[in-house]
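tool_call predict_complex ligand=arabinose-5-phosphate
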Amino acid sequence: VKDDEAKALAARTATAELPASGVIGLGSGSTARIFIADVGTMVRQGRAFQGVPTSEGSRKDAERAGIPLLDDSGPWDIAVTVDGADEVDARLNLIKGGGAAHTREKIVNQSSRRNIIIVDESKLSDRLGEKWPIPVEVLLFGHLGTARLLSDVGRAVRRMRDGRPVLTDTGNVIYDVHAGPLDDPAATDRALRDIPGVVETGLFVRRADLVIVAGASGVRKLIATQ
Ligand code: A5P
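tool_result ok
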């Protein structure tokens, strides 16, 4: 329950960062979900927002909340994207993809003028990979061979749920690569992306402008310095 309160506080703090109107990127996961509900409330109060969802889950949440959505094809000029993360390091680099949505999340992040990440304080760590493996979306075609190559970077485990491989919204598989703690996330990201069959990694290097962290002692804003 404490965690949920922190997530709600982070989400509410992010709504204060939104422009008066415009295109908003809608993240995925339990924290972003609270944000989407808050944006829905603002739309009902008359704010002219349009959304770009980062997963089929956030699309459903946004539709339920009454947020008008832009076409999936893009291109979008997104004013602000608000998304969650699984791990955040001191430089505001991220691991994402705990919900297998990181490829669409990264595309939306790239299309956004400002990226805000909302987390509870349990997500903070000194070095990425201390708490989580790196989620990697892999094309189904030849994935067992791709997995061997991933193993050169770190132990690669195909993500399963209820005895079945997890598939992304695009129908690809997820491998969780245990390569942490990472000294150089950008280099690890490059090594993984070099492998044919890798669609995208969950390493978000220099992609957060602001991280809103909520915890027992309230809310903190971490601003990227670069
Ligand atoms: C989805 O694939 C992830 O990148 C999420 O943004 C991340 O897992 C955060 O989710 P929670 O807010 O549920 O922790």
